[in-house]
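User:
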Amino acid sequence: MKEIIAIIRPRKMGATKEALDGLGFPCMTAVQVLGRGKQRGIAGELNVDIRPEELARGKYKAVSYIPKRMLSVVVPDSEVDPVVNAIVEINRTGQVGDGRVFVCPIDDALRVRTNEHGESAIL
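Assistant: Predicted structure:
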């Protein structure tokens, strides 16, 4: 099993959720987070009337942290590629701030209600 952690734009959350549901993975955890990448904060992610070229001229200070969504979904090893590909396809705009996807190993999973272990606990 693998945990797929994706940091995405908030406005892409609905489409990402629908894509994962369509692949048979409706269960996920989503958290509102703040972060920044190599761009060190941009105003284009927020609903404000500041153009990136004005930031470059120093007219405004850059936004230190940008609102994002962090998704976590645990999938069987055989489903990692389709899930990652769907997340990337939905969230790739070609612009700075499209996000990141991390794939981490999971040793075990336990469904508390039924005491199921392993893949049966996540499916």
